[in-house]
Structure formats: C-alpha cells, structure tokens
Specification:
The chain is of the alpha/beta class and 444 residues long. The chain is 65% helix and 7% strand. A four-stranded mixed sheet has the order 2-1-3-4, covered by helices on one side. The protein is elongated. About 7% of the residues have low confidence.
C-alpha cells in the first residue's frame, strides 16, 4: 500500500507542478465564467438607434409606425430614388418603401449597412400588425382596440409543474433543464478524454523510455497501474474542483459588482415576449428570469428536479467512475503497444460507446425517460454521459443507484482485465499485438 501511495504522490506532484497545469487551472474558470457572462453582456449591449425613412405609396402607414428605443421613424413622400439619396446623405440608416397595392403589400427596405435580425423583425412585425388592423376594420368592421382587449382576456399561460414520487409539486423549465443536462454530459465527455488519455500517454512514455523496467523491479505491475490511474484522477479532481469554485466565484463577483447585469428590464421583457414570427411567449416565463435581487444560482436550482448540490455530487461521481473505467482500459491499451499510432486500433472500439452517447444527446434530451435514455444510462461505458443528461429532468432513485452500482462493478471488472494485460504487455517490445493475443494474456 505504501508503494501505491508513493506512485500516486509521484504522478500527482509531477503533473500539478507543470506550467501547463497551472495555466489551464487559471484560464479554465475564466473561460467557463465567460460562457455565462459574455452572452448576457452582449445581449444587453447598447445597440445603435436605427433611423428609418418611410415612403408609403398607399398613404395608409403614414404616422402609424411605433417608435422604440432602438428604432425611430420619419415619413416622406415623393420620388423614391431622390428620397434614398437625400436620406442616406442626411445620416439615416434605412429607407422603407411600401409599394402601392390593395391585396398583399410589398415593401422594400433599402440600407447601406446590413441591419441586425432584430431590426428586420421589428419592421416586419409592425407592418404585419398594421395590416392586421386594416383587415379587421375594412373586412370585419372590428375595432383593433376592442380586439386587443378580447385577445388579452382569452390569453392562456401554461406553467410546467412536475410532481415527484412524494407528491411534491415543483415548477420546471424544460429548456433550462435540457441546457444543463447537455452541458453536463459534454463536460463529462471532455474530462474523461482529457485525463484518461493522459494515462495512455504516461504508460507509453514510461514504456518507450524503459523507465517501467526499473519501476517493475520495485513494485508489482498492478500497483504501478493503479498508482498511475489514481494519481491522474486526483489531478483531474483537483483541477475540476478549482474550476468549479473559481467559476462560481467569478460569476457571483460579477453579479455583485454589476447587479443589473442579470436583471430583466421592461424593454427586454417586452422584446422577449414576442418572437420574430409574432409568437407570444407567456410573460410568466419572462418574469421567472433572474433579477438583481435573486441569485442566478437560486433561480437555476428552483427549476431542477434534483437539487443543484446533488447534481454536482452526481457529476463528481460519474466523472470519477467514467474516468476510472476508461483510464483502466487506456492503461491496458498503452501497455500493449509501442507507440501512440499503434494504439488507435484498440482505443477506437473502447471510445465508440462514449462517442455514441454524444451522438444520441438529442434523443436523450427530448425523451429523458425513454428506452434509449434508460438503457444508455445503465450501460457503464455510456452512463456517465447519458445519466448526467437525464439527471436535471429527474431520475428515479432506484435507477440512479442501479446505474452507479453497475458502473462500480464494471470498473472492478475493467481493473481485473487491465491488470492481466498490463502485467504482460508492459514489458513486451517490438511486437504487433492482435486481439487474439490480448485474450490469451487474460489466461496467464
């Protein structure tokens, strides 16, 4: 046991003292925090106020467009070509020409600089609204004001409420749940490949440099393999915990220093309530966004069907068990080959299940309780990703514990399998190993 501890300490200290580890440990949280903060800043960034000249050949839209904080309208009549020239020279951003017509109204929007999608959507939605009001008046003799009152009285808002096994009710946000699930699954995939591949390269490096021959004279092959796997696992766990703490600290610090950053203003709420195609979003969904007085993490936690702390603990478990399984298999592969190029024929079959789990992210997120999601969360080679995608949506406790138990049992089997191969392969040089020969080594 003391020898394993020495190997673990050597692997751990050698890696955490590297400049690459220190740099990535510092840069990682900044990049992760930027994924949360930068989109919010960009979304709230003050955009240019667009000044639009309206030329209406029908005289129906004159003085009927509604100015907003980002869009201002002025009205002209006369020759369109002359108006375009004068307007652009005067600093206007666009000229909206509404052609004459009694049925479908055709419009042309002239500009010198490509406008934003939001600007085009504002123009289209206002034209559609004015045309709709015109049809109400001309064809049905309905006052648009009365129509809006009637529509407000018949508008519905559906809130998703999940009932757990104990009968407790909790509001759920499907979109947020999917995003968190996919993010967790992709993070697991990234960490497993990042650190498990280090085991493969470490074994190959020691084997190529003949260092392993010296080490084997002092320790058993299984001790060397387990020491390397656990040591690198501790490196990964250390880096992950530092990333989590610093990322949350940065986001929380930004929220304290700029309390209005995550606040939903009335203008933003009004914009979010209407999509470009005119689809109305229930204002209850908009109101549920994080405000300056409410921690963004508290709001996120309220939408999970599992507590954020439990989700983080499950993430740690599946990160560790997923890493341990693949690290054991990668260690076996590294001991059986002489260089990294030869390892591809063995690593590909091992990594296919993990890649397949990533490919099936969409069907798993769309139906987290379906048969595909269930079975992939039970298979040890795919469960670290599949189960993390399912967890934010809520997973029965028996399924979660069964998945964990199967993963642990499979890890023990992988260690036995890897130890058999590692013991023979780590001292073998200059020979191309086949799958048949690998299975022979299991009998030794």
């Amino acid at each position: 046991m003391n020898k394993i501890k020495l190997i673990i300490a050597r692997e751990y200290l050698t890696r955490v003292k590297k400049k690459s580890f220190i740099i990535m440990t510092i840069i990682g949280p900044i990049l992760m925090a930027a994924l949360f903060v930068v989109p919010v800043i960009v979304a709230q960034q003050t955009q240019k106020v667009m000044k639009v000249v309206v030329v209406d050949d029908n005289d129906f839209f004159i003085n009927k467009f509604t100015d907003t904080d980002k869009t201002k309208f002025v009205y002209r009549s006369g020759d369109v070509e002359l108006i375009k020239s004068e307007s652009f020279d005067a600093g206007y951003d666009a000229v909206l020409h509404i052609l004459e017509g009694t049925q479908a109204i055709k419009t042309n929007l002239f500009f010198k600089e490509e406008p934003s999608m939001n600007f085009s959507s504002v123009i289209e939605s206002q034209i559609d609204k004015l045309l709709f009001d015109r049809v109400l008046i001309d064809s049905f003799q309905i006052d648009p004001v009365n129509y809006e009152k009637m529509k407000s009285l018949t508008k519905s808002s559906v809130s998703n409420i999940k009932i757990d096994a104990a009968g407790n009710e909790k509001e759920s946000n499907a979109d947020l749940v999917r995003v968190v699930g996919v993010f967790s699954g992709m993070a697991i995939y990234f960490f497993i490949f990042l650190f498990a591949s280090q085991v493969l390269r470490g074994v190959l490096e020691e084997k190529t440099n003949r260092i392993v021959e010296v080490l084997i004279s002092s320790v058993k092959p299984i001790q060397l393999m387990m020491g390397k796997i656990v040591g690198i696992a501790m490196v990964g766990l250390t880096q992950f915990l530092i990333w989590v703490v610093l990322t949350f600290a940065i986001i929380y610090g930004v929220q304290l220093s700029a309390p209005t950053l995550f606040e939903v203003t009335p203008e933003v709420a009004e914009q979010a309530a209407t999509l470009p195609d005119g689809v109305q979003v229930p204002m209850a969904d908009v109101d549920s966004a994080p405000t300056a007085q409410t921690s963004i993490f508290t709001k996120i936690d309220n939408y999970f069907n599992i507590s954020f702390t439990a989700l983080l603990l499950c993430f740690l478990f599946y990160f560790l068990i997923g890493y341990l399984i693949y690290a054991a298999l990668f260690a076996a592969v590294g001991s059986a080959v002489d260089n990294e190029a030869d390892s591809q024929q063995f690593t590909m079959p091992v990594t296919i299940p993990l890649i397949l789990a990533m490919v099936l992210i969409v069907p798993i997120t769309e139906d987290p309780n379906g048969s595909i999601a269930f079975w992939f969360s039970m298979i040890p080679l795919t469960s670290p990703i599949a189960m993390m995608i399912r967890l934010p949506s809520g997973v029965p406790a028996d399924q979660l514990f069964a998945s964990m138990a199967i993963a642990v049992a499979f890890f023990i089997l992988c260690v036995w399998f890897a130890a058999k191969i590692y013991r023979v392969g780590v001292l073998m040089y200059g020979k191309k190993v086949t799958y048949r020969e690998l299975f022979k080594w299991l009998k030794y």
